[in-house]
């Protein structure tokens, strides 16, 4: 008996029977996804940094705002602040400062005042200006406010002793004056007093010197503190941040003390400093 071997069917592997589809290449897809993702990360970091910066700025603003003890409630209307300031300048300050001595010289029939009469006349003019600005502030205040109590409260604040602060401020100012005088003597050399009227008053007699000290160390500072810090700075700080009020009131103070002679001195000193630096 002859047996015939049946042919075996070829084995087919699963991999060859069901071939897997080819995967697309990844490098062509990754750049399109990674670039927007990196941009999103950078935007998130920028926003977080901006938030941290704003938080630090707000904390710094709160610290600076807490430093100020200026009152937020003032006896004058906010809309009347600049009109009162203009009335003081053009009705009291400019006429008395620039024409007061001429009027006194005509009343006394003396074209040239002696130093003692001059310093006494300036003191009378400053006191008149102080009485005038006090009256102006009193009649323009709100009915329910007492201007005298307002200024009295500024000197006796519960959180800060203004007398101690004034002593420290005057001491610092005197130290800065001596320091700048020493530096000016080293750079420029000693010079005489630029104001000839003040030089004449200081060299006239001890009484003239005492009157000059009373004028420039008591009467004038009292007048300027009442106008520029007591009224203007307090009024401005009730509608804006205190450092903005300080800058604006300081600018107005500088305008009130500006003159042609001082402007010429400022230009000459600026030119000299520029030449020294260059």
UniProtKB/TrEMBL annotation:
| A UniProt-annotated Pfam family | Rce1-like
Q: Give GO MF terms, alphabetically.
A: endopeptidase activity
Which key words are in the record? Answer: Hydrolase, Membrane, Protease, Transmembrane, Transmembrane helix
Q: Where is the chain membrane-spanning?
A: 81-104, 116-137, 163-189, 242-260
Q: Which InterPro entries match?
A: Rce1/LyrA-like_dom
GO biological process terms on file: CAAX-box protein maturation; proteolysis
Q: Where is this region: Disordered?
A: 1-27
Q: Using the record's annotation, list all stretches that form the CAAX prenyl protease 2/Lysostaphin resistance protein A-like domain.
A: 211-260
Compositional bias ranges of the Low complexity kind: 1-16
Q: What is this protein called?
A: CAAX protease self-immunity
Q: What is the lineage of its organism?
A: Eukaryota, Viridiplantae, Streptophyta, Embryophyta, Tracheophyta
């Amino acid at each position: 008996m002859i047996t015939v071997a049946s042919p075996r069917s070829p084995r087919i592997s699963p991999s060859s029977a069901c071939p897997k589809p080819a995967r697309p290449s990844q490098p062509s897809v990754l750049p399109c996804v990674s670039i927007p993702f990196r941009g999103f990360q950078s935007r998130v970091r920028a926003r977080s940094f901006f938030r941290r910066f704003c938080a630090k700025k707000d904390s710094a603003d709160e610290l600076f705002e807490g430093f100020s003890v200026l009152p937020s409630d003032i006896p004058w209307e906010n809309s009347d602040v600049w009109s009162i300031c203009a009335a003081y300048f053009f009705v009291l300050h400019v006429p008395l400062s620039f024409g007061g001595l001429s009027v006194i010289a005509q009343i006394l029939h003396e074209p040239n005042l002696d130093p003692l009469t001059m310093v006494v006349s300036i003191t009378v003019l400053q006191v008149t200006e102080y009485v005038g600005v006090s009256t102006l502030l009193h009649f323009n205040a709100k009915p329910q406010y007492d201007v005298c109590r307002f200024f009295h409260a500024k000197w006796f604040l519960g959180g800060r002793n203004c007398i101690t602060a004034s002593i420290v401020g005057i001491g610092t100012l005197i130290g800065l004056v001596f320091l700048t005088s020493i530096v000016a003597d080293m750079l420029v050399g000693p010079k005489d007093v630029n104001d000839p009227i003040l030089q004449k008053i200081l060299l006239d007699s001890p009484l003239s010197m005492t009157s000059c000290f009373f004028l420039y160390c008591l009467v004038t500072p009292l007048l300027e503190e009442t106008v520029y810090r007591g009224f203007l700075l307090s009024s401005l700080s009730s509608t804006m941040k205190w450092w903005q009020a300080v800058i604006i009131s300081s600018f107005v103070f500088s305008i009130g003390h500006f003159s042609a002679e001082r402007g010429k001195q400022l230009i000459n000193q600026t030119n000299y400093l520029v030449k020294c630096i260059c």
